[in-house]
Structures are given as C-alpha cells and as structure tokens.
DNA sequence: GTAGATTAGTTTAGGGGGTAAACTAGATGG
DNA sequence: CCATCTAGTTTACCCCCTAAACTAATCTAC
C-alpha cells in the first residue's frame, strides 16, 4: 500500500467529494441562487453542443430520464429553453436555448470565472497554476467523461 | 484576461463541479448505495474528530441546523450513531458513533480507497502522482475549510 | 430571584434533487 | 396489421435543503 497513494486518496476525497459542495455554496452570483446546478448544467450543455433531445441530456447528466423530464419542464416555465418537436420523429423533443437562456449561460460562466479567478490569482504562483492545469487535465482525462 | 487562467477555470468547473458527481456515482460499494453522501460525511467527521453536538455538524457541513436534525434522526434509526445528552448543557446532544457506525466508516473509506487506487495507479505515472498531491494540497489550502 | 434574551435542537411547509414503474404515443419491422 | 421498441411523462416515494415557528434550557441583568 503506497503511502503517497493513501495521501492522494485522502486529498481526492477532501477536495473533490467534500470540497466541491462548499465551493458551490460560495459562488454567490444571483444566477446561482436562482437556478440549480443541474439546471445550469443543462443550459451549458446545450450552449456547447447545440439543441438536443431530452434523452441525450439524461444520458450526459447520468440521470434517469424522468429527472430530466421534470427539469426541462421547469426550464421551459422559466423561459430559458424552448421545446421543439422533431420533424423526423414525432416522439423526440429537441431542447433549444432561448435568448434568455443564452444570457443565463453567459452570466453563469462569468460568475464562475470571477470566483475562480479571485480564488486563484491571489494565492497561486505562476508555477502552481501551470501545475494545476496539467494535473486537472490529467484528471479529466482519467475520468474521461465527454465534455458536459 | 490571462489565457491560462481561462483554461484553469474551465478545468476547475469541469472536474470539480461536474466531474465530482459522476465520480460519486461510480463508486459502487453497497455502503454508498445504502447511505447518502451527507450521512457518510457526518459519520466520517465524528470518526475523525470525536463526538460532537448537532450544531457543530451543521456548521462543518455548512447546512442549516434543521437539515442536520433530520439527518441525525435517520442515522440514529439506522443505529449508526448514539445521541447522548450533554451533562453540562441539557440542550445540546452529543452525537457519537456506535460500533456499527465505526464499521460503516471503515467500509466507506475502503471503498473510496479502492476506487481511487484503481483509477490512479493504472493511469498515473509517479511524477503525475507527485504533482497531483502537491496541486491538491494547494487547492485544499486555498479553499481552506477545516478538515471535515 | 425572576423576566427577557439567547441558544440548541425540532417541526413543518415547500422546493430542489433522484429512482423505479406504469403509462402514452409515435416508430419499426416481421 | 399487430407486436415490439423507444421517447418522454406521470406518480409515488426517497434524500437534500431552507426559512420560520416552536420548545426547552441557559444566561444576563435588573
């Protein structure tokens, strides 16, 4: 049992499992108060990859289709998305961002950027930032889930 | 606007915000099916720091006291914790692990260890592991919440 | 000492997240 | 044409969370 590995596991657990929750609570943009993380994630995915059916969202978020069903209903009520019946297959519903939805994504990105920038730029040296980038790239690769 | 910083923010968001969820779903120990993350976190905290009052748990978890109130009720029903009235202050309830609770913590730790080990040891070189440890130490320090 | 304020924890209402299973309605294919 | 498959919805039930109202114990200050 590698001693460094034990340390790594503990760090992983601390930072990833427990730390992330605290971070998310600290991002205090009005956007993050108003919409849930999962809702913003849906918007972000669509913004990145374009309109997609509900089933694909469920798959990407890794949750049951019924969870997505209620989620998109809420997002539609908030007028952040628009549901379009596919012309090929009448069963599938293509989820598209509205103008408002696009704006929300922009604001959310902005909030995250400002938060992390504040966190990092004061407290990280140039070298540490380089190391951060290469380590996190590696982790993303290891976890290899397709880009949200 | 530092280009590397933008990359760092994106990585941070991908890995921390969205990646953690996926990781947690992949840890498929029966323990993680049976008890929620928050419940296990309570057990872990007590196991690390010893018996503590409900209020302190709420504070450490960063949630409302009412959330903890219902949580410890569930944990008591499952016989993982034991609630002891403090002798000094009749209002406070000291939360202590039972033998079963200790065992659950042990098993949860084991599950996480095995999962992360499997993830890392195959896919990380020695140098990368070193870099991981130093980067994550830095992040933990920056986020500086006291050790769960 | 006793009244008022504070503190620890509970309860309830309401809203987020999730699943599984039953269901509707289109698509497909023997 | 009818059985089967598939996309999405609904329902019942679980966990998470908060805010606000509540109980009960402890302080504090007159």
From TrEMBL, chains A, B:
<dbReference type="GO" id="GO:0006950">
    <property type="term" value="P:response to stress"/>
</dbReference>
<dbReference type="Pfam" id="PF01047">
    <property type="entry name" value="MarR"/>
</dbReference>
<keyword id="KW-0238">DNA-binding</keyword>
<dbReference type="GO" id="GO:0003700">
    <property type="term" value="F:DNA-binding transcription factor activity"/>
</dbReference>
<dbReference type="InterPro" id="IPR036390">
    <property type="entry name" value="WH_DNA-bd_sf"/>
</dbReference>
<dbReference type="GO" id="GO:0003677">
    <property type="term" value="F:DNA binding"/>
</dbReference>
<dbReference type="InterPro" id="IPR023187">
    <property type="entry name" value="Tscrpt_reg_MarR-type_CS"/>
</dbReference>
<keyword id="KW-0804">Transcription</keyword>
<keyword id="KW-0805">Transcription regulation</keyword>
<feature type="domain" description="HTH marR-type">
    <location>
        <begin position="1"/>
        <end position="141"/>
    </location>
</feature>
<dbReference type="InterPro" id="IPR000835">
    <property type="entry name" value="HTH_MarR-typ"/>
</dbReference>
<protein>
    <recommendedName>
        <fullName>HTH marR-type domain-containing protein</fullName>
    </recommendedName>
</protein>
<dbReference type="InterPro" id="IPR039422">
    <property type="entry name" value="MarR/SlyA-like"/>
</dbReference>
<dbReference type="InterPro" id="IPR036388">
    <property type="entry name" value="WH-like_DNA-bd_sf"/>
</dbReference>
């Amino acid at each position: 049992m590698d001693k460094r590995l034990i340390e790594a596991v503990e760090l992983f657990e601390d930072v990833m499992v427990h730390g992330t929750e605290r971070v998310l609570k600290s991002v205090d943009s009005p956007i993050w108060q108003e919409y849930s993380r999962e809702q913003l994630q849906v918007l972000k995915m669509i913004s990145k990859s374009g309109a997609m059916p509900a089933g694909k969202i469920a798959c990407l978020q890794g949750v049951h289709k019924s969870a997505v069903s209620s989620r998109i209903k809420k997002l539609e009520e908030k007028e952040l998305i628009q549901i379009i019946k596919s012309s090929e297959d009448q069963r599938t519903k293509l989820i598209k961002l509205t103008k408002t939805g696009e704006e929300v994504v922009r604001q959310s990105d902005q909030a995250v950027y400002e938060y992390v920038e504040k966190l990092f730029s004061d407290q990280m040296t140039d070298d540490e930032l380089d190391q951060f980038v290469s380590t996190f790239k590696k982790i993303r690769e290891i976890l290899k889930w397709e880009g949200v």
